[in-house]
Design brief:
The complex is a heterodimer.
Chain A: E1 4-7, E2 10-13, E3 18-25, E4 31-37, E5 44-50, E6 53-57, E7 64-70, E8 73-79, E9 87-94, E10 105-106, E11 110-114
Parallel strand pairs in A: 2-11
Antiparallel strand pairs in A: 1-3, 3-8, 4-5, 4-9, 5-6, 7-8, 9-10, 9-11
Chain B: E1 3-5, E2 9-13, E3 18-25, E4 32-37, E5 44-49, E6 53-57, E7 60-65, E8 70-75, E9 84-91, E10 97-99, E11 103-108
Parallel strand pairs in B: 2-11
Antiparallel strand pairs in B: 1-3, 3-8, 4-5, 4-9, 6-7, 7-8, 9-10, 9-11
The chains are: A mainly beta, B mainly beta.
Chain lengths: 115, 109
């Protein structure tokens, strides 16, 4: 067990739906990340939170909205998604801030299908 | 631009040895990571190299040559459970992780 959990594990939604992905880490880490993983493509970093403050937003469309209420929880709110947003969404955490060489530990991901 | 290259897919036989290569071109270097990812599961950390040379950890070893921008992951005594994707990632000068697309390793009996 990596100590990072994600719910739901699978999600099917229409383009007009609103849903949220949840991530929780039990490792006492200070940084949390959202990644998008599409087939045969490198992991795409979407958002980084360090000490509960967002430190990076890699030009992600506004239909994705992150929320980090505390250092153990991270949410990704989804609204009016497109079919090309279908992918595996991975959450990760690391000790210390995001500006170091600390290892990232991943959750199992949410498999999202947008119809 | 920044780039990580690794083979898309490799096949090996149970009990054999396989080497998965990774070449990188990044703005600066602050370490290279290898992760294993079974289908439908979380990527799990395997190794971290920041200095040149070979790091051995049981059946898995990872090698780094910073001058060549090159690393490999060596898996010995392959087992069926080693069938997975292996992800190479480099931390650049801004400590941002740059990821390769992963190598899918298929183990045959």
């Amino acid at each position: 067990e990596t100590g990072v959990t994600q719910t739901p594990r699978h999600l099917v939604m229409g383009m007009t739906n609103k849903k949220s992905l949840k991530c929780e880490q039990h490792l006492g880490h200070n940084a949390m990340y959202w990644y998008k993983q599409s087939a045969k493509k490198p992991l795409e970093l979407m958002f980084v939170y360090s000490l509960e403050e967002r430190v990076e937003n890699n030009s992600v469309p506004s239909r994705f909205s992150p929320e980090c209420p505390n250092s153990s929880h991270l949410f990704l709110h989804l609204h009016t998604l497109q079919p090309e947003d279908s992918a595996l969404y991975l959450c990760a955490s690391s000790q210390g801030g995001s500006g170091g060489v600390e290892t990232q530990y991943f959750g199992p991901g949410t498999r999202l299908l947008v119809l | 631009g920044q780039n990580i290259d690794q083979p898309t897919e490799m096949t090996a036989t149970e009990g054999a040895i396989v080497q998965i290569n990774c070449t990188y071109q990044t703005s600066g270097f602050n370490g290279l990571f290898w992760y294993q990812q079974h289908a439908g599961e979380a990527p799990t950390f395997l190794s971290y190299n920041v200095l040149d040379g070979l790091e051995e950890k049981g059946r898995f070893s990872s090698f780094l040559s910073r001058s060549k921008g090159y690393s490999y992951l060596l898996l010995k005594e392959l087992q069926m459970k080693d069938s997975a994707s292996y992800l190479c990632a480099v931390k650049d000068s801004n400590y941002q992780l740059i990821w390769g697309a992963g190598t899918k390793l298929i183990i045959k009996p």
